[in-house]
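Fold this complex.
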Amino acid sequence: MFKTIISAVLFSLLAGGCSLQNVQPWERDILAQDKMQLDPYPVDSYLDDHIYYSKESSTGGAGVGGGGCGCN
Amino acid sequence: MQLTNPPQVRRKLALATASLLGAVGPAAQAATADDWAIDTSVLYYSEDSRVTAIEPVVRARKAIGDDEYMTYRLVVDSLTGSSANGAIATSSPQTFTSPSGNATYTTPANTTPLDPTFLDTRVALNAEWEKPLSRYLKGFFAINASSEYDYTSLGVSATLARDFNNRNTTVSAGLSYNLDTIEPVGGIPDGLTAMPTTTSVQKSTLGSSDDKTVADLLLGVTQVIDRKTLMQFNYTYGMDDGYLTDPYKILSVVTGPSSETLAAMPYLYENRPDSRARNALYWKTVHQFNEDVINFSYRYYWDDWGITSHTLDARYRYEMGGGHYLMPHARYYLQDKADFYNYKLVDGNIPQYASADYRLADLSTTTLGLKYGIQLSNDSEFSVRAEMMTQQSEGDAPFPDVDATILQLNYSFVF
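Structure:
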């Protein structure tokens, strides 16, 4: 299953790389929308990070900082 | 996008620039320089027969200059209920001492032992300063502090983000450093020594408190793919040093490899290595179809404890019209166990490091949820989400499933 996922990811990266558009500042209407931001729901992300930090053994990836907890 | 409202257009263009600059840029935005954008939220998290947490959050963000913002976050986390202590279920009742050593609790036969003494309140504060440093360079500087009755965490972080290529590419580099102190109830148990089974015997301890440092490094690239697609690629490296053991977790010791009979010293406190090097590769993409938006991420994680994991996360924001949206969420996590994870130990064959904490086992987590949001005005939004989370064993360890319900209410406004 994960080989398929990795292949799909690599394919999308390559496909994306071949079709990069140089988007001009006046063409950013869609990218400017709140819902198009990388982290459009920061409180949801914070709470999810806290839940999964407490219940799983992997951290990192999206950013740095944020603080620790005892999380027993 | 409201083309009939020029200030709104200017605001959104400014926000686009601001967010493209930052790999970790937050989203709630102040309408004008004098306004505060406030996000309020309360989370209810409840596991079947185990932990329940209620967690209110307030996040406030204000522009303090041209493209310069301060963001503050206050979180209160209140926890009650039971947590698996690491021991196995046996065919007869088992008695354990509480972490303080002053009381005992008994688990019925054929039941996974849960320590019922958990009761904790955590307060966490975070402040972030987002500051343009030159035309194409922006800095994010943050401090955080949190306190629980047995745990304190203090940290700083800094991320620099530099735009290239007509602001279509942003390269980010970040560092964070945390100093955490744990002062467990009953002291720091000496790893892999016996847990007393009566209050008349004291456990062997290594002092009343210990600490750990957590350092993280981030390197990332954010790329505009086209007018409707944004991608982010990050690598993070983390190093933990110090006391990484869970002082409240134990392991059962049995008399033989295939035996369920407990040894004469039936329970040992767990013991983990005192360092851990972590790595994560992270890819995220945001794409808009007409009005709907998909947000997808994948993370591959590995560390020198032997843990590897895959995390897939997808949210699809379906616009219902009139400011209403529905957002299904699916998350899947698959983890390979730590080298020192043991469901139980065999008498006479005790390793240097061992933990029976199910969170270090072969496991998967599946989360399915739905969020509904409504725009109440130009500057306010209400949303609610409900999710179900299930964790289950993916290896030989027969720990029981952990099922949790997640409910969250959000209200955002500007004043």
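Residues 6-21 of chain B form the longest helix (16 residues).
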